[in-house]
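Look over both lines before class:
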Amino acid sequence: MQTEVLGRGSGEPSGPTGRLGHHRSRDGSRGAPVDVDLDRPHAALVVGKRGYGKSYTLGVLAEATARADGVAPVVIDPMGVFRGLAADGDAVPGRVVAEPTVRADAVPPRRWPAIVGSEPDSPVGALVWHAAAESDTGTLAGMRAVVEDADATSAVERAATNRLRRAAGWGVFDPDGLGARELGGSEATVLDCSGLGDAASNAVVAGVAAALYAGRARAFDPTAVGSGPIERLPWLFVDEAHVFFEGVACGPLRAILTRGRAPGVSLVTATQRPSALPDVAVSQSDLRIVHRLTAGPDVRALAAAEPAYVDRAVTEAMPTAPGEALVVDDTAESVRTVAVRERDTPHGGDSPRASAVDASPATS
């Protein structure tokens, strides 16, 4: 049976692909293999209610990119369920960064007021923005030094300093933190953010997304500002994406969605709550992998972005079994029902069961 490649138009030249699964026929039988194009940049969205395979599918795609030539996969793991990607280097080349850090200057200066909880046009926010733009060390200490030397009232200086010190207490900013070069390798890099709060993990994602974009921008255009070129095409995977689109990471993620194609940066987001994403996160996705959804707002969010070539409502064709997905492919203008393949590495997203607990009384 001939393999269908999602995300690739007819007549386009071949290139690296990754196995997603197999067609699911109307009678439930297994059909032809289905791959995903990994040769070009893509924006993909994976959605589904809990227990129907959203994170599992994200892991399948991450495995595929880790095996592809010319690709640099980075996985944002807010729940600690993707550590299995590095369980067996022979199966999938991967590593886990247990305490991810980024350089302070990996976050664009205009994002810093939001990171520390200030409005950019407020005196404190404006001072923090100025400190991020003028610091020449790429560190929070350098930013605080700029604040101390600024022509500001003592109250504004004190507030800005306190906010920067609070950010330093998160432990996610480091002069030797992850940059474009460290993230641009062939293995899958899993950034375990499960021990971080929402603000700290948003800072990590903002820094990583900005570094990947800038790294490819420098490879694409040597005159662009950035921390160093990435030769491979980055694929950034973000689970629980609504948390980051609601925080300071939203700006860098939006930049990849809307401008990532030219420099070659791909973004794959996954969420249980597509209704919590900005419209651009759905409308700009050229691949939408839809597992079962039942909440009205989430179903309506997908329906609102339903392309004109769909001859049957996505809400009507949505699969009901775990592991099955409806894939809307804008490149080929097609809709397919796919049974997602089994993972080759351990999946950490299964729910614990009370029946698996040893309930025997302890003995002394």
Q: What stands out?
A: The chain has a mean pLDDT of 87. The first strand starts at residue 4 and ends at 6.
